[in-house]
Amino acid sequence: MSFTQFELNPRLLSNIAHAGYEAPTEIQKAAIPLVLANHDLIGTAQTGTGKTAAFVLPILHKLMSGPRGRARALIITPTRELAEQIHQTILAFAAGTRLNSATIYGGVGAGPQIRALRNGTEIHVACPGRLLDHIEQGHADLSGIEMLVLDEADRMLDMGFLPSVRRILQNVPPKRQTMLFSATFPPEIENLAAQNLTHPKRAILGLSRPAHTVSHALYPVAPHLKTPLLMALLKQTDTDSVLIFTRTRRRAERLARQIERDGFKTTSLHSDRTQGQRQAALTGFKSGRYQVMVATDIAARGLDIQSVSHVINYDMPDSPDAYIHRIGRTGRAERHGDAFTFVTPEDRQMVRELEKIMGQRLKRETIATFDYAAPDALPSRAPSEPQHPQTPRSGARRFMENSQGRRRSSQRLERATSRGDSPRPGRRTGGRASRQADHRAGRPSGGRVWSNAHSA
Question: What pLDDT sits at residue 434?
């Protein structure tokens, strides 16, 4: 099958050929005819299968006819990087059509976005937060939207964007064509689809397994040896394009600095970096300026980085779906890729889940020259005092303790008075400062017995 069979606008067909695409992918075969026939669509496809073109091409074809100079298509996506990637895809396919696209996301100045919204740019690719800001400030008129795409809907749910998405949907016409793409369908996404799509057709290419072009290997390791093992692995690996995933932003930044010190050209991608820094990191990694990029899961969904040869999970992802999306950065477009995952004892359950999805036992690998018995270099902490659990107290016991506490408080007050330390006139006793001091000293205050259980 070829793209000509979709009967797309000749200008689009020329741009498709110029971009080097010869035949549509499975998701494009399934989705493009449905969108061209004006159906609402629910789409699921494995990352790296051409999903973006599956909705961009029919949108551009439909926009070639009809009015210009006003917003007609809105694409909502969870991250700035994905918005920028979709925007670049639109620019490539829309060359020579006089159709315009603009991105709307946070972390950059609002001025150019406001001008694009006011000047009638036909396609807006937006992240929910910034778009909602423009709507509330009166900059965005979405009353002419004909086609709406909710891309990576489950990711927007994970990031807490669903309330913003629902508010945005209140500002677009109810009579529209809606396309929803999601890798998984938890109840919240099913409800979103049921409430906002009309008799949708489905283009489902399941995510049951990762791409067949990816080889998988697990590297069992103690937590304190992860970084030394990573350095040893990088030194014996073709490091032209390696993407490393960590769970946290701080770990990503710290690890990137350490890899850089070991002689690898390294950058990082996480939400603590400015939009300019994130875009520079992506551009540098794609161009080969950087050999290694250390990222959090912000980069795991949808980003089109064709040349990644290796994905290394420094930290085990928190779900099989996250694993599939992470390793989907390699083995793209039928290229071969490798996925290495560091596994600690606490990751055993996730390993079992992954192997169930894969339908086979994942191979375990070791590095022959690596010292897996090396002790933790960090000084051990002084052992804490044993915590003895308190036995439940009966009502009578609590009464006795409270009574004893009140008697001790009264006795302290009497001793203080006899020494001439009586409170000054008009000053309250047993106030907040007094209670805090009693608390720190472990003394009863106001009839209450403070213990480790209370102050924990």
Answer: 41
